Amino acid sequence: MLALLWLMLLAYTGWVSPAGLAQATTSEDKSIFILAGQSNMSGRGGVVNDTWDGVVPPECQSNPSILRLSAGLKWVEAHEPLHADIDVKKICGVGPGMAFANSVLDKDSSLGVVGLVPCAIGGTNISEWARGSYLYSQLVRRAGVALQGGGTIRAILWYQGESDTVSQEDAKSYKGRLERFFEDLRTDLQSPMLPVIQVALASGQGPFIETVRIAQLTIDLPNVRCVDAKGLQLQPDGLHLSTPAQVHLGEMFADAFLQTLPIPLQSNAPKRFHNFVCEFFFHRPPN
Ligand SMILES: *[C@@H]1O[C@H](CO)[C@@H](O)[C@H](O)[C@H]1NC(C)=O
Ligand SMILES: *[C@@H]1O[C@H](CO)[C@@H](O)[C@H](O)[C@H]1NC(C)=O
Ligand SMILES: *[C@@H]1O[C@H](CO)[C@@H](O)[C@H](O)[C@H]1NC(C)=O
């Protein structure tokens, strides 16, 4: 009875089409995730003196069910460093992406094949991601290509803001710029309720960290969730998350994402039902 009510709610709100409910997940039905932001999303875990130590923890191992869209726009089996051919001006190490993918698959095998679309570039500020910019266009283009092989974009994982903590003016503009960025992406990816999981900064490159952090934590858009980087371990460089911290962050991303999911309908339904209803009643979209 509860299950039936659940299905009707989902169909009514457009989260899942009734036909979609009947389909089994196939490898063409990828669960696609966009990874964007700056260096901590790109990944510097294990990079010391411009050399990556090559350490890949068990949580970040490759798996035939985890693909990545290469810089050459091909799906390939994903492995660390995930952004090596994307963030090419820097030495990349471990980021949160592989730990996220492994964790999400462990917890919900119905997601099928995970397709990661790395787009993060170190040192970038929010203005460089605005609609019309190179980075924005690349993201939308890569997302479009990712969809061509079949599948659904399930979420954007976003970790950025350190570069916007330097001037008070930029920090103050951050919230508006960030909301605009998410709204533009949802429009251009034709997914008005696309889940966004973002990270609240623990520190940054300038003094206005708290302003940016508050902007991130109080963002006023439906279906945007925030995980907190406060307390995560930095590497000896004092600048970037260590490999163990990235593993932890990837798992936090996974848990936050799973809470946005209305499926699968069976096992975890009561918990998600609750979350979903909260989301639905408190952040109902204008239409
Ligand atoms: C990195 O470089 C510094 C300065 O040259 C040196 O003291 C340190 O031992 C190096 N660390 C590693 C792990 O190579
Ligand atoms: C963002 O970065 C670009 C390129 O480095 C720079 O020209 C611009 O002034 C920066 N904008 C802000 C708001 O920090
Ligand atoms: C990476 O993330 C950590 C934790 O939020 C933060 O302290 C650090 O400033 C970030 N580094 C850069 C270069 O953005």
From TrEMBL:
Keywords: Hydrolase, Signal. Pfam families: SASA (PF03629). Gene3D superfamilies: SGNH hydrolase. Residues 30-259 form the Sialate O-acetylesterase domain. Residues 1-18 form the signal peptide. One of its GO terms (molecular function) is hydrolase activity. PANTHER family: ESTERASE, PUTATIVE (DUF303)-RELATED (PTHR31988). This is Sialate O-acetylesterase domain-containing protein.
